[in-house]
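Re: that backbone. C-alpha cells:
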C-alpha cells in the first residue's frame, strides 16, 4: 500500500525490534492517515529536494513496541507523525543541515549521534502545530539519550561533525525524542496540553 509517491505503508511500519519481539506493529486508521500526511507533506518533498533516496529506519511504533524499546509515552512515533531517517551517501550532519536549509515544514527535528557509526535524524510533522523545533540528542556512556537541548537555526547550520564517517551508517531502534515534561522544562511552554490530549486519545483507542 502506497502512502505517497515515494513511501509505502510497509516501509513506514517496518521494525526489526518488533519482528524480534513478536509484536504486530500495525497502525489503526488514524495513524495511517498521519503517516500519509507525514510522507506527502514532508518526506516526499525532502526526497525530491535531495534528489536521492531516503532510508526510513523507524516510522510508526505501536504502544507495545514503543514501551519495549524505552520510548516516551508521548512519542510522535506512536501517532504516526515521526520517522527516523538516513540518506545513503550523505552524513547525518549533512542531512540534518540540508533539511534546515530547505526550510521544509516540520514539527520537531533531532540530530541523533549515539556513536561515530550509529547516527540518524528524527523528524516529525504535525499539521495542527508545526513548531520547527530543532534539538541535539545528548547520549550517555550507555549509548542511550539523556537529554535533548534545543538549538537555533543558526546554531544548527554552524555545527561541525568532528569525526566524519567513512562507510555505512548504523541505526539503534530506541526511544529517541524528549517526553512532554522535558520539552516543557526546556521551553517553559504550556501549549503542550494539546499534544497531551491527542496522546491520551490515542492510548484510549489502543486499550
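Recovered sequence:
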Amino acid at each position: 500500500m502506497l502512502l505517497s509517491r515515494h513511501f509505502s505503508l510497509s516501509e513506514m511500519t517496518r521494525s526489526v525490534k518488533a519482528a524480534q519481539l513478536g509484536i504486530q506493529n500495525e497502525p489503526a486508521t488514524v495513524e495511517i492517515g498521519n503517516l500519509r500526511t507525514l510522507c506527502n507533506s514532508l518526506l516526499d518533498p525532502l526526497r525530491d529536494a535531495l534528489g536521492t533516496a531516503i532510508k526510513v529506519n523507524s516510522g510508526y511504533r505501536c504502544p507495545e513496541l514503543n514501551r519495549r524499546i524505552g520510548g516516551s509515552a508521548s512519542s510522535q512515533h506512536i501517532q504516526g507523525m515521526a520517522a527516523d531517517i538516513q540518506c545513503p551517501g550523505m552524513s547525518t550532519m549533512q542531512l540534518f543541515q540540508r533539511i534546515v536549509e530547505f526550510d521544509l515544514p516540520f514539527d520537531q527535528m533531532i540530530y541523533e549521534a549515539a556513536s561515530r557509526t550509529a547516527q540518524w535524524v528524527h523528524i516529525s510533522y504535525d499539521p495542527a502545530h508545526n513548531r520547527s523545533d530543532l534539538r541535539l540528542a545528548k547520549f550517555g556512556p550507555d549509548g542511550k539519550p539523556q537529554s535533548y537541548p534545543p538549538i537555533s537555526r543558526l546554531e544548527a547550520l554552524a555545527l561541525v561533525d568532528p569525526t566524519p564517517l567513512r562507510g555505512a551508517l548504523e541505526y539503534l531502534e530506541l526511544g529517541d525524542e524528549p517526553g512532554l515534561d522535558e520539552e516543557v522544562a526546556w521551553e517553559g511552554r504550556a501549549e503542550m496540553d494539546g499534544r497531551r490530549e491527542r496522546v491520551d486519545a490515542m492510548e484510549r483507542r489502543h486499550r
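The longest helix spans residues 29-50. The chain has one domain: 9-205.
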